[in-house]
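Hi F.,

I've been meaning to write this up properly since the lab meeting, where we talked about keeping a consistent format for the predictions we share between groups. The idea is simple: the sequence comes first, exactly as it goes in, then the structure tokens exactly as they come out, then a line or two of notes. No screenshots and no reformatting. I'm using this chain as the first example so we have something concrete to point to.
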Amino acid sequence: MAKDVYESPLSARYADKEMKYLFSPDMKFRTWRKLWIALAEAERELGLPVTQEQIDELKEHADDINYEVAQEREKVVRHDVMSHVYAYGQQCPKAAGIIHLGATSCYVGDNTDIIVMTEALKLIRNKIVGVLRVLSRFADEYKELPTLAFTHFQPAQPTTVGKRATLWMQDLLMDLEDVEYQLSKAKLLGSKGTTGTQASFLELFEGDHEKCRQLDRKIAEKMGYTACFPVSGQTYSRKLDSQMLSVLSGIAQSAAKFSNDIRLLQHLKEVEEPFEKGQIGSSAMAYKRNPMRSERIASLARYVIADAVNPAITMATQWFERTLDDSANKRISVPEAFLAVDGILNLYQNVADGLVVYPKVIEQHLRRELPFMATENIMMDAAKRGADRQELHEHIRVHSMEAARVVKEQGGENDLLQRIAGDPIFGVTLEELDRVLEPRKYVGRAPEQTADFLTQTVAPVLARYAGIEEEAVEINV
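Output, unedited:
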């Protein structure tokens, strides 16, 4: 690897080779040749003077791209598409005259962009499924473990560790729905010509409008798609790029939320992300275990969320049938977004698959706060024994404020239960209060909600994708 040339960290550090290949020059130029073959076949089937011998010649050289010839030609003509038409023609002399017949550069450029984004979105879909599998196991394992819930990052009514994981999963399921919807409506540009009117093809087909219609349908079918956009300018609508990155932004948002929760839980020492045997948490403080991977998720997610603005602005500023101010921007913003989300989901699965839970710490935190949360139950029991509810409420208020003052101002333990047990109005012993404070009594339906969610919502989704092979994710840095 050259050390004196900039390399995107997304390629060097984060994304997998499958995603990197999809956005590689080789994938692009091989797809160009597939599109030229599809065009030639469709034109032959619709009666243009294209021979099977020419098509066979094109297929024979579909993959052995003569890059050197194309590069040298581009130095002369300054046009990448025509350079590759020339290079392909050098390998296929019989077919040279019919390569790219009637088409514009956007025929290969835009259709390839759509194909690459679609295939990349399929990889993203598969990785979301992988994360859901891991989180499903985690949620099931800890569905009954009570833990403090937080609103405003202040202790609130308890939940369970597994129930909290279902919140992460529900976000991902919403993302998966968006991915599936985007894939369900995938369309190619087809071959629309310079301004989208198919004028060149209408000329080639001698005014036969039906053959122009069939051309797009045949190209789509040969490339594995069900349809082309019914209308376009020279390019497909840049709305598609905006929609694609909007979906990726949604995934990044979900992952960032998960990573923030893990970072906060690691601060509380309740849950930690995996820590490798030889990993260094801090160069200065050897005892530290920093949530580095979760921080990396948040960092990459922030990039994707901001990057999604690029195609939105590009879409909004296109002029009429096309301008070229989209090209340089989308060349950067679209691939980098996919590579970043690929890296994010790798990290997400890795962290989720190795989460370390500390039940004793969780219980300690919960029991410290539980007396405040149990006061309603304690009041109701005392009221049943004949005490006045208003008096009980006032006594609880005073005791709670005093207990909170001890905790906050003196750094002492929460002695609310002792205060209540010592107050005759409640008529209850400390031992009886301890029984009231069983944590499982305060988690509501969290265990049942988790079980229902896993069986009724998640399991059918995972079953639908059972054919996706489960793979362990390796994080390089």
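Notes:
The radius of gyration is 31 Å.
The longest strand covers residues 154-160.

If this format works for you, I'll send the rest the same way.

G.
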